[in-house]
Batch of 4 targets.
Target 1
Amino acid sequence: MEKLLNKEHIVIMDNCEDWEKSIRLLGDRLIRTGTVGREYIDRVLEREREYPTGLSLEGGINAAIPHADSVGVFRPGLALGVIRQGVGFREMVSKDPVRVQLVFLLAAVSGEGQLGLLQGVMELLQNRSIRERILSAEREDQIAGILGKRD
């Protein structure tokens, strides 16, 4: 997973207007590196409206994992938004509002690849210490280092 997330795909910000803007910001990073096309980001936004991906996690550092099918994906990739004050998403199961600090935008070229990415992100999110270290990191390269040394 860390091979797909380079520091160009990481955005650190204090706040973000809304979930849609957070996905667009991360999508722009993936577009700039030739990972996905604009149509993929549009599909992610459409899917998030219908099937929210917010997760309420133990410890209060919550996450969302927006993604869509592989249309518009040129190569596998992952972008991470660290939003210190959080941004409103809807919870995956209950669809209730949830304030999210970590947004992982997935891009996979196949269903199997997407499942692998989802599993990797879910494994990472289960570790509260890693979530705390990511949220407190000052720079993108620090986050890349945290994710690279997590095993």
Target 2
Amino acid sequence: MAHTILPLTEQIVLVTGGARGLRAAITRAFLAQGARVVIDYHTSQDAAEDLAAAHPGKAIAIRADVRDRAQVDALVAEAADRFGGPITTVVNNALADFSFNGDARGDVKASKQHGARRRAVERMPRWV
């Protein structure tokens, strides 16, 4: 079975957390290539709505907490309804309640909160 890749001009792209920072740059890049974009936001309503308003008919802002299945289902349904077709591409970028403070990180080895990262770092080759 051959698969056909849709040109970006025919795609509906969901960018989770797509209203700020690098995620907004990803949203703008898809828009610049002609895709229609669903800008998911959790707390950045103004940024999401401003970005969507700058691209009428090509971008929509929809609030959904990606940790909540019912909200994601509603987002997908609303996007399909408003754009007249299903989402074809997902860029999963949402960082729910994420805040980075490098000074507050502490010692990675001592932090239970960062156990997975610690284990990954411990397994890295010594030349990295």
Target 3
Amino acid sequence: MSVSKDACRNIQFSGDALMLRSMLVASMLAMAPVAARAEGAFSCGGADVTFSFNKRTEGEEHVEAVLTVSRDSRATVLRYDGNIDFIGGVCLRNGRNRPTVLFQAYCGGSGCRDLDNWGIIDPGDLRVQLVPNDWNRMAAQKILGQPLPAIDKMISIRDEARKLGLDW
């Protein structure tokens, strides 16, 4: 079976068209809004964001949650030693269209303020703009310049404790 030069050009064109279509779909997906979902690690505005967990044995055994936002050789590290039951964050664009690390760290009891306890970090200069506390929802919205999203799938400190061999 022989294949003509025209058929080869058509195959090449089809391959180019397929590649162009794939690039277009990838571009559209990259511009689509990202679901607000906590993960163990993600990128934001050129910075790497990680949530890690350490077993602590000083006094009563517990888990230390560590949020690290790093860029080049610099890092901002926030440690939560006890006192929280959930932590998580997302990368989103703020009201000025700049990438922003938005996170929450809160306890899970009936007296806990899970609508508050927001933190904000600028991934460009690694500056902490807001630390979580029990009354900062309005401040977080003001800094972010838009309503706060719900962060789906927060990381459970209890689950992380079990992974580290702690029986809670």
Target 4
Amino acid sequence: MTRTGAACRGSAVLALPASTVARFAPGGSTVGHATGTTCRLTLGAWSWPGLAGLLLTFDADSTDIEPAELRQALHSLRTRTSKGLAPDHVEP
């Protein structure tokens, strides 16, 4: 799961049943059964932050996030969001 050209591909185990995720996963995604209550979602996007955003739309706990670029994008989004939510945040 690496970046090829303009496409980024990654995956995570989501705390949702595969049947639920499969109904809402974007085209080109792969949903694999992990347990009765979890699944592995593999999908692609045009950027790592975009891919991270797609994972967040499932509003579920996630583990085993791959590759490192996707984990870094999630960290970056967390940092940017935290700054925006800070009580002393001033709009530029």
